[in-house]
Amino acid sequence: MKYKVQPSGIVRELREDDFLVSKTNLKGIITYCNRIFIEFSLYNESELLGSQHNIIRHPDMPRGVFQLLWDTISKKQEFFGYIKNMSKDGGAYWVFANVTASVDDNDNIIGYYSVRRKPKENGIKITSELYKEMIKIEKKAGTKDAIAASTEFLNTILSKKGMSYEEYILSL
Questions:
Q1: How far apart are CA 46 and CA 63, in angstroms?
Q2: Where are the domains of the chain?
Q3: 5-24 pLDDT, tens digit each
Q4: Is the whole-model pTM more than 0.85?
């Protein structure tokens, strides 16, 4: 089921000991979510299970970041990132995400596992400004070229800093 949710301006903050956990299949369909994830998303478990994980995607998140996430985890590498999510009521909540591939006994990817926790304020400030620029670039480039344009912008910034995305995010 697809919900039409618009940002409301409400912002929620995770507590220090909160861990939002979810598992998905290979297509990003939620197969497990813990009670803290349910609490912050404001969806009930039955609405989340079987839904695309992007049910909580906030429109302030650039598509280029999610492309990087998928590129990273599909290679069985860990992804770390600051992510702005959106609750069922349109409220926002920032997380520091760690996403990894789940593998079977033969090392085949069978799904993905994500643990999110309270992000650092400085990280939110810096990444929100970066994401605003990426969104502008995506809008200017148009739907067809949006991801490539914002990814190129991000890679240029990282190159100037002499850092990988992971190094940059973990340095915040």
A1: 27
A2: 11-171
A3: 899 999 999 999 999 999 99
A4: yes
